[in-house]
C-alpha cells in the first residue's frame, strides 16, 4: 500500500502548531506563577496557606518565614 506523501506536510504542520500552542500556554501559566508548576487538588489547609502567603508577600507563591505582615502589604 503506497504512502500518501501529500498528507505528511499538513499532518506535520498540525502537530507542530499544537505543540507550539501547548508550549506557549505552559510558559504563560508558569510565568504568572513565579516559574513554578500549578497546584492541583488543593485542600482547605493549602488554601489557607496560599491566602497567608498572599498577605505576607503579595503573591500566591511567595513564601517567607517572617510571621509579621510588612508595612507595604498592610497598607494595600
Automatic annotation (TrEMBL):
Q: Which InterPro entries match?
A: NADH_Ub_cplx-1_asu_su-1
Q: Where in the cell is it found?
A: Mitochondrion inner membrane
Q: Does the keyword Transmembrane helix apply?
A: yes
Q: Where is this region: Disordered?
A: 54-76
Parts of the chain that traverse the membrane: none
Keywords from the named record: Electron transport, Membrane, Mitochondrion, Mitochondrion inner membrane, Respiratory chain, Transmembrane, Transmembrane helix, Transport
- What family is it from? Belongs to the complex I NDUFA1 subunit family.
What job does this protein perform?
Accessory subunit of the mitochondrial membrane respiratory chain NADH dehydrogenase (Complex I), that is believed not to be involved in catalysis. Complex I functions in the transfer of electrons from NADH to the respiratory chain. The immediate electron acceptor for the enzyme is believed to be ubiquinone.
Entry protein name: NADH dehydrogenase [ubiquinone] 1 alpha subcomplex subunit 1
Amino acid at each position: 500500500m503506497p504512502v500518501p506523501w501529500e498528507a505528511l506536510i499538513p499532518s506535520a504542520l498540525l502537530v507542530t502548531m499544537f505543540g507550539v500552542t501547548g508550549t506557549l500556554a505552559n510558559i504563560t501559566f508558569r510565568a504568572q506563577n513565579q516559574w513554578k508548576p500549578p497546584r492541583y487538588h488543593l485542600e482547605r489547609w493549602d488554601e489557607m496557606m496560599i491566602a497567608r502567603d498572599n498577605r505576607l508577600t503579595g503573591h500566591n507563591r511567595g513564601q517567607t518565614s517572617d510571621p509579621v505582615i510588612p508595612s507595604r502589604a498592610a497598607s494595600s
